[in-house]
Amino acid sequence: xxxxxxxxxxxxxxxxxxxxxxxxxxxxxxxxxxxxxxxxxxxxxxxxxxxxxxxxxxxxxxxxxxxxxxxxxxxxxxxxxxxxxxxxxxxxxxxxxxxxxxxxxxxxxxxxxxxxxxxxxxxxxxxxxxxxxxxxxxxxxxxx
Amino acid sequence: xxxxxxxxxxxxxxxxxxxxxxxxxxxxxxxxxxxxxxxxxxxxxxxxxxxxxxxxxxxxxxxxxxxxxxxxxxxxxxxxxxxxxxxxxxxxxxxxxxxxxxxxxxxxxxxxxxxxxxxxxxxxxxxxxxxxxxxxxxxxxxxxxxxxxxxxxxx
Lengths: 144, 155
What we know:
The complex is a heterodimer. By secondary structure, chain A is α+β, with helices and mostly antiparallel strands.
């Protein structure tokens, strides 16, 4: 049994952008949006390495990352604590992510700008629901 | 000094996130629900739900390092880096500001093409009260819009 619950999978389909925070060796945090956090298996995710070089440099200096994802179905958000494992520039994970990034780029008008350079694979150290960040769906006024 | 466009976005319908880290250099994330740039154009107060503030404030009191990422639905994006100054509970005027910002954020998300079934719960589901106002001094501003200029130091 892995650490990621099945209910988190819709949050990793790239419908709503995710966020990633990294930290350099000198202790400076870096906050960035990311097109997609890809579900690899119950203990691993992949982040798309496209062009955000500071995030990439930080990961090379300090393998830890904090990622925020949100489900477009339940609107529950999660915090993930990650540790970098490896960077794939080919193979099945890279191929699927490349196809999905191209689809996202077409949808948001970023074709030719969004280009997958690598699928960065991370081990999930911890996952927690972002309790207190969201108002429950039943309490949101008006029609959905 | 924070550029005009970045001030406009900090006060407008922008998705904002704060990044901090602890003594072991473990990064942490929280969504920001509104921001206000002070008259000196260097000091910024941001608002986060109190329920999400404990780890954030512990990190900031330990080491003071702040990264603030902001992005529009159009992908125009910037990042501020700076140093923590202070925190306190949000007041009535700030809650009113946050409510106005949520309405603007929803309008912007719909204009950007998000279906109402996603935009409404996504935006109106943002908790903001009780809230904490966190003030920091911005020392660097970077362009972060995807493309060849990403990472450019603006100020």
